[in-house]
């Protein structure tokens, strides 16, 4: 079992783009409805460029949670995204930026989530010190609506102006 420890931040400006090492198109969809009573995990299919995987995460919101990930045949993943997903498929471009010995993953969302840009950084421990780049704005690690599973159920385009500003 792996334990994912990551922090999430909203992104301001475009200075981070100059630092990006690479970018990859992502498409991901969820195979289960987390609104069902007793749900303890999300199960998603994700295509990253030309690779695919199935990912299972505990439904905890916050700094760390259980995560399991396994490769899946690309053609099988494409079929699952088209036929088995609960809710819409989330699409985004992920940029990788190295800053102060950490690799930041910056997701620029597309489609119904266009306009939302979120940076994630994985940590070795929950109490690891982290220097923030200028473009990392408000921390949203503890705010459920910024998680992909939430965006698949209630996209950014449906948020109120107050939700987008806070």
UniProtKB/TrEMBL annotation:
E.C. number(s) listed in UniProt: 3.6.1.25
A GO term, aspect molecular function: inorganic triphosphate phosphatase activity
InterPro entries found in the cross-reference section: CYTH-like_dom_sf, CYTH_domain, NeuTTM/CthTTM-like
Ribonucleoprotein recorded as keyword: no
Keyword Cytoplasm: no
Keywords, comma-separated and alphabetical: Hydrolase
Active-site annotation: 30
Residue ranges of domain CYTH in the record: 2-153
SUPFAM superfamilies in UniProt: CYTH-like phosphatases
Top enzyme category: hydrolase
Protein's recorded name: Inorganic triphosphatase
Organism: Hydrogenovibrio crunogenus
């Amino acid at each position: 079992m792996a334990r994912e420890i990551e922090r999430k931040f909203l992104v301001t400006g475009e200075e981070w783009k100059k630092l990006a090492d690479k970018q990859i198109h992502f498409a991901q969809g969820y195979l289960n409805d987390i609104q069902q009573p007793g749900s303890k995990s999300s199960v998603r299919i994700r295509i990253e460029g030309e690779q695919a995987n199935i990912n299972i995460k505990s439904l905890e919101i916050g700094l760390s949670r259980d995560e399991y990930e396994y490769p899946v045949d690309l053609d099988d993943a494409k079929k699952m995204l088209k036929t088995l997903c609960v809710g819409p498929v989330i699409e985004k471009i992920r940029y990788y930026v190295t800053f102060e010995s950490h690799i930041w993953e910056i997701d620029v969302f597309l489609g119904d989530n266009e306009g939302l840009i979120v940076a994630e950084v994985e940590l070795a421990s929950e109490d690891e010190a982290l220097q923030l780049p200028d473009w990392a704005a408000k921390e949203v690690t503890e705010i459920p609506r910024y998680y992909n599973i939430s965006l698949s159920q209630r996209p950014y385009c449906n948020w109120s102006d107050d939700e987008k500003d806070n």
